[in-house]
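Quick one, probably user error.
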C-alpha cells in the first residue's frame, strides 16, 4: 500500500516493499556487499532475467563458466544476504532471485530521492515485478 508525502509542494507516492517493515541499514549493507563482486552480480542479474522460474545450478554454471565449488560459494553469499532463494526439485536445485529483497533494497536507496530539490520531476521510485508464468 503506498504512503503519500509532500515534498516541494507536490504529492509523491513511496512504495514500501516490505509489508511489515522497511529495510534497515545493516540489511542494505549486506545486500550491497553481496552484489559488490563481479560474478555474484552476474549471477543475480541472470536470475532476475530468468523471472519467477529461476535457473538450475547447472544452467547457472553453464551460463557463467564458473566451477561448481566457486558457484556454490557465490550462491551462499547471495543467499545469506537474502537476495537468492533455492529449492530442491529431485536432483536439481532451482535458484531464484528474491524480488522482495531486491525491491526493498531499491526502496531503501531511493526512499528520500530528490526530496525537496528542483530536479525532483525525474525522480520516481519503481518496483520490479517478475514476469508472470505463461499459461
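Nope, works fine. Designed sequence:
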Amino acid at each position: 500500500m503506498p504512503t503519500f508525502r509532500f515534498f516541494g509542494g507536490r504529492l509523491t507516492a513511496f512504495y514500501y516493499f516490505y509489508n511489515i517493515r522497511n529495510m534497515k541499514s545493516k540489511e542494505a549493507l549486506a545486500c550491497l556487499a553481496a552484489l559488490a563482486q563481479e560474478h555474484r552480480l552476474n549471477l543475480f542479474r541472470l536470475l532476475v532475467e530468468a523471472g519467477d522460474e529461476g535457473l538450475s545450478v547447472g544452467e547457472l554454471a553453464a551460463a557463467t563458466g564458473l566451477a561448481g565449488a566457486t558457484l556454490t560459494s557465490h550462491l551462499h553469499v547471495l543467499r545469506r544476504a537474502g537476495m537468492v532463494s533455492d529449492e530442491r526439485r529431485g536432483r536439481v536445485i532451482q535458484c531464484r532471485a528474491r524480488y522482495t529483497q531486491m525491491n526493498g533494497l531499491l526502496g531503501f536507496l531511493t526512499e528520500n530521492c530528490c526530496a525537496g530539490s528542483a530536479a525532483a520531476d525525474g525522480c520516481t521510485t519503481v518496483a520490479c515485478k517478475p514476469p508472470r508464468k505463461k499459461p
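The chain is about 40% helix and 20% strand.
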